[in-house]
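Reviewer 2 asked us to include a model.

Predict the structure of this chain.
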Amino acid sequence: MITSILVEHPWLSPAALTLLLVVGPFAGAWLSTRRGLAWALACASLVPVALLTLVPVDRELYWRCEVAWSVPTIARVELAANVVLFVAPVLLAAVATRSPALALAFGTGLSAAVEAVQALVPALGRSCSTNDWLANSVGSAIGAVLGLVALHLAREWRLARQPAQDLHTS
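Predicted model (structure tokens):
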């Protein structure tokens, strides 16, 4: 169903990615002082990941995984959606943990785990694919970079406010 929507509206994934690229660092910087909220949002952002990758679908699949390495592009709507799917969770995890590298490892590891579950539980009707893992990992890398930018922005904002605070305490 989601693939049909994406094929009919191929602009959705690029629009979502653009929104995340523009708003993500500022939202992440704001959330950097609200780690509890960042954690809550990171957990909430995993709900679409679970729904879109682990909820059973009605289709028969062969008992094997696709091994292919295709670079995700805007024209490949399903791969582009797989990129977008992991940007927000990794960005939010990077802010919550204050470690973009740890969040990147989490994102790529989670994607590998999802593909393994899809491979080992054929009743889900899902197909595992190295292309999906690669696209999710690209999204994780984008999320980690946005998290790094957000943490840098937060540090800059804190430093910019500090002299003003020092004047008020004198």
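The two ends are 62 Å apart (CA to CA). The mean pLDDT is 88. We have added this to the supplementary material.
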